Amino acid sequence: MKKVLACLLIVVLLCSLSIMLFSCDSKELKKLEYIDANGEVATVSIKKSEDPDQVTASICALANKPVDTSSINSIMASLSASLNLAGTQNDTAWDANLNASATIGAAIPAYVQDMTPEDFITGLKFYAGINATGKVPQDIMNLMDDEETVDFTKTVDLNESANLYLDENAVYAKIAFSDNMSKLVPMLGLILPTINNKTSKVDLLDDDFLANLIEQKEITKEDIAKLYESLHNANNSYIKIFEGLDEDEEEVVDGTDETEVTEETNDFEFNYANVKKLVEAFNIKVTKTKGSVATFSASIDKNTMKKLNELFPPEEGEEPTFDEDFKGSFSVELSIDAKTMLDVSLSVSSSTIGEFISDPDNGLIVSSGSFTVTASISTAALPTISQEDKDAAKESPMLTMAVKGIIGKILG
Known about the structure:
Elements: H1 2-23, E1 32-35, E2 41-44, H2 52-64, E3 74-89, E4 92-107, H3 117-123, E5 125-137, E6 155-167, E7 170-176, H4 179-184, H5 192-195, E8 198-203, H6 209-217, H7 221-232, H8 238-244, E9 249-252, E10 259-262, H9 272-281, E11 285-290, E12 293-300, H10 302-311, E13 330-337, E14 344-350, H11 354-357, E15 364-378, H12 387-392, E16 394-395, H13 397-411
């Protein structure tokens, strides 16, 4: 029995030790430098906290931390949203829901020394994808027009997906749109029959398209090396980027060679005092840290607007900058990986979204509504098209014309 208890004790100790090791924050969150309230260099280790000074120091330290791009070869940006609504319109019950996402990413070869422009472009990869499922008003596009109304009682079901890949000098499109998509966007009805529910292919080397483009733009090996070096030697920070937005700009006057220097002033200076004002106004907290990732939370409501107007009062005779009649409330969560400072996720959610849509004067009542929007940047590898889909891909003249037109416009 003693041996059994001893073995159990060893297992418990090992499990406890492993949990401690894996939950321990990494060095990227420890002893980070920032400029404090007195203008002096200070250090902070980021940890869970609701103290405004600790949170402010954490934000200033992360904003000052160099962005490490030395080993980055790919990057993706994604946006996802979920929406649920229910209510009545002129006493007729309705409900709607939507889950949608969009992703775009690009990757460059990991090694480019002495690589020819043709080989470099062959090694480029690109991905774009959209997905949407749910039930939405048939005339939802009218939401973009203030003069049009939306009939929420007439809905269509969605189950849509589209994926675009650039791989080895070829663009592949895999599209699966329902007939209802053409009802929402009528112009799609002109092109969908040729590319829908199949994998289409555009060979960029066909007719020497890329070769001619490289020759016209006089792209050289040296240009490729400089591009690669600029991407992998960047040592910027969010503060530097913010300050760069505030630099003087030169504008051409009347189409002549004379220039007029205009000083762009920004009302917000990124310093400890101003960041602390925002921390207090938005009730920002550090909710957790795990490894090299720090997570912040914030809230937005009418009290936030009031605090912002107190902290950043308008000039005499001017209206308050922030709307104190702000409807609803929002919760915000931001996670950032301090290792690269590029892996970031921002989520905004609300259970009071119906207050923005309800229009009782016109018979529209939203009884319940919630939404979440998440935006993220990732340095993970791009999604790739399967060899099976590659083999099944067929040339599409319409897609070929569209893709080459877009590339020519971008580079032209």
